[in-house]
Design goal:
Layout (H helix, E strand, L loop, with lengths): L1 E5 L4 E5 L4 H13 L1 E7 L5 H12 L3 E5 L2 E7 L9 E2 L4 H11 L5 E5 L10 H9 L3 E3 L7 E4 L3 E2 L2 E3 L5 H11 L2 E2 L1 E5 L7 H8 L5 E3 L2 E5 L8 E3 L4 H13 L3 E8 L6 H8 L3 E10 L2 E9 L7 E2 L11 H8 L4 E5 L12 H11 L3 E5 L2 E6 L7 E3 L4 H11 L5 E5 L11 H7 L3 E4 L1
Parallel strand pairs: 2-17, 3-16, 6-7, 10-12, 11-13, 20-21, 24-25
Antiparallel strand pairs: 1-25, 1-26, 3-5, 4-5, 7-9, 8-9, 13-15, 14-15, 17-19, 18-19, 21-23, 22-23
Helix pairs in contact: 1-2, 1-3, 1-6, 3-5, 4-5, 7-11
Length: about 425
């Protein structure tokens, strides 16, 4: 699939799909509970569908009832009859590894070509310390998990990662004693918030989190809050095009708001207003307008709250006067693609002045962008960032491999078009 984008100004009000991170966890926690759980606004992106498919293979009844996704659990998982396919979803693989490590059966997690290249040793090592036996291909999928009785540990993660933290805490639910995770900086805290809301206390002090073994979440009803990572593309597009975009029903978790904070520091007007709460998360309105004017320098402590939105921030930095530096993001090299290289090379094709460094970017601005033929590298966040770039570029921007957007947001093109984007699909 190819997208063709021309310069446009975005204006209007819109909603976004349910948050992926919350949705993965909601499905898994409902599977660990006993009884019926109902969820609305669950996104239909491929990553979340992979989690649902794996849980079905583990004996969980997941079906649609009107506009609700229903999960019916019997308080235990069944041994799967074959490998569990996680598709392109690292969250599915890493969090399920934590759950499966404590089950009394053997299971195997596989993924697509991209997921099979991503590092899994970061979850294998702590789970092995807890007593699980996990065989892999040099620290990569497939993961052959021999579940067993686990023992709680006190573990310090090498990087601030919600996936590592969550995998260990979820394994801790099936372990004897206390399991503690210590992070170098606070990562996304959806697991802690949701477990606590569902009756499993998580003791948190700064970036240190603990759970006691033998606890299970209760069943629930929830409206999944809108994905701030999806909202980020629309808000950034509104600002960069000189428009005015409001996204309704967005999750306002501070561990996910780094891009909005950075845009505000760069001179855009960003308003956030909480209007409700769901599964322990504040939900509300985000509005973005006004072109950014100031360069940005980011330190390591700011990175976890915007790691997925860094390519968007690099794009914004190309449009302001001065030198911007974004460092401490070497984690981007082991995502669906090497996002540091993919961002740099694609935006250079459009005229940006970006220096790729080992752990990030140095950007000189402002640089007018020109339409070019660019490539998503089969990475949904790169493809969608390039669509936003096309909205401020002269001429036509042609984005190859755009079908990858379906991993997180199948309706992305329609959302942009509804706000005034000149975008066509071939």
């Amino acid at each position: 699939m190819t997208w063709r984008v021309r310069a446009s100004t975005l204006r209007g009000s819109i909603g976004v799909p349910g948050d992926k991170s919350v949705s993965h966890r909601a499905l898994m926690f409902a599977a660990l509970a006993s009884g019926r759980s109902d969820m609305r606004n669950l996104p239909d992106g491929e990553d979340v569908l992979s989690t649902a498919s794996c849980l079905r293979a583990l004996g969980i009844d997941i079906h649609q009832d009107g506009d609700a996704t229903v999960v019916i659990s019997t308080d235990h998982l069944q041994a799967p009859s074959g490998p569990l396919d996680c598709g392109n979803s690292g969250t599915t693989m890493r969090l399920l590894a934590g759950i499966l490590a404590g089950q009394p059966f053997r299971s195997c997690l596989i993924g697509d070509e991209s997921l099979s290249r991503r590092p899994m040793r970061r979850v294998i090592e702590p789970l092995a310390r807890m007593g699980a036996v996990i065989e892999s291909l040099d620290g990569r999928a497939p993961l052959d998990i021999h579940g067993s009785r686990l023992q709680g540990i006190d573990y310090e993660t090498p990087v601030a990662s919600a996936q590592i933290k969550s995998a260990v805490l979820l394994a801790g639910l099936f372990a004897d004693g206390t399991t503690t995770v210590r992070e170098p900086a606070l990562s996304r805290d959806h697991t802690e918030r949701m477990l606590t809301t569902l009756g499993v206390p998580v003791s948190s002090s700064g970036a240190v989190h603990s759970v006691e073994g033998g606890r299970r979440p209760r069943s629930f009803e929830a409206n999944i809050p809108g994905d701030p990572s999806s909202a980020a593309f629309l808000i950034t597009a509104g600002c960069l095009t000189g428009g005015d975009v409001t996204v309704n029903g967005t999750m306002l978790n501070p561990t996910r708001a780094g891009l909005f904070t950075a845009l505000e520091e760069m001179g855009s007007e960003i308003d956030q207003e909480s209007t409700s709460e769901s599964v322990g998360e504040a939900v509300g309105i985000v509005r973005g307008r006004g072109k950014p004017r100031n360069p940005v320098t980011l330190s390591d402590s700011a990175i976890p709250s915007l790691i997925d939105e860094v390519p968007l921030l690099v794009l914004a930095a190309t449009q302001v006067a001065g030198t911007s530096e974004i460092r401490g993001v070497s984690e981007l090299r082991v995502k669906e693609t090497d996002r540091i290289r993919a961002t740099t090379e694609n935006l250079r094709l459009m005229g940006a002045r970006i220096e790729e460094v080992e752990d990030g970017f140095v950007i000189q601005g402002p640089t007018p962008l020109s339409g070019s033929c660019v490539d998503s590298r089969r990475d949904h966040r790169i493809g969608m960032m390039l669509a936003v770039a096309g909205l401020i570029a002269a001429g036509e921007t042609v984005i190859r491999g755009a079908e990858c957007a379906a991993i997180s947001w199948p309706g992305f093109v329609e959302a942009l078009a509804s706000l005034g984007a000149d975008i066509a699909v071939d």
